[in-house]
Design a protein that fits this description.
The chain is an alpha/beta fold. The N and C termini lie far apart (59 Å). The protein has ten helices and eight strands. Strands 2-1-3-4-6-5-8-7 form an eight-stranded mixed β-sheet, sandwiched between helices.
Length: 276
Amino acid sequence: MPGKNMGWCPGCGNYKLLDSLKEALPELGIDPRNLVIVSGIGQAAKTPQYVNAHMFNGLHGRALPAALGVKLSNRNLVVIAESGDGCMYGEGGNHFLHAIRRNYDITVIVHDNMVYGLTKGQASPTSSMGMKTPVQVNGVMLEPFNPLAVSLALDAPFVARASVGDGERTKEIIKQAISFRGFAVVDIFQPCVIFNKLNTYLWFKENTYYLPDEYDPTDRIQAFAKATETGKLPLGIFYRKEGRKVYEDLLGITDTPAYEHTVSEEAFERMLDGYR
């Protein structure tokens, strides 16, 4: 049952996503002292408040820049950026695109409820065409943003989709994403029970299916075909490409955290000269 001090509506899909995340982390043996969860603004962005880890709650659409700064300052940390579809794909869309290109070693978990749940139910980038909202009273006119297809087009090395209606499978996908070395995107369907009366728990159950056992996640072309399917939407790990260099390696960042770096007195004086 939801905790009495938690900030979500009864029945919100965020509870189930939180459960899967909280089960995944100890099963991976991650020390909470080495875990940082960064979020933006929105209902989904409250998630780090309920996890035993370091957290940073940033600006709307700006979870990724903060998460990347954390990772670059100490690459030994496990860094998760998580927020909603509006925050990550809308306000944060530019950061999402270029973070994929750079391939930071972080995990991105997106709570995809296909609506803005904090700001009273207007359409988000992933809202279905024709969906009516208090703002889009005649229905959404645009095709929804496809985060999986965009991620694959930019060659993100790990791309997956899950649904909170199946907590066990969602947990396992999250575990694989966190364990992966490179930029891992997990788009997770989760209902907003107040503002989205279309994409309900039942809707997600009836309109999704899992990729078959014989599916090959190393085939990027096949992954793109699956990501662009309409009708029933596939769940699972669409694409996994091992061995791509992460941005931290390209920059030559060592395992020594930034706070342990030392600067010689001479170099310090040179820096000071730049400000005089």
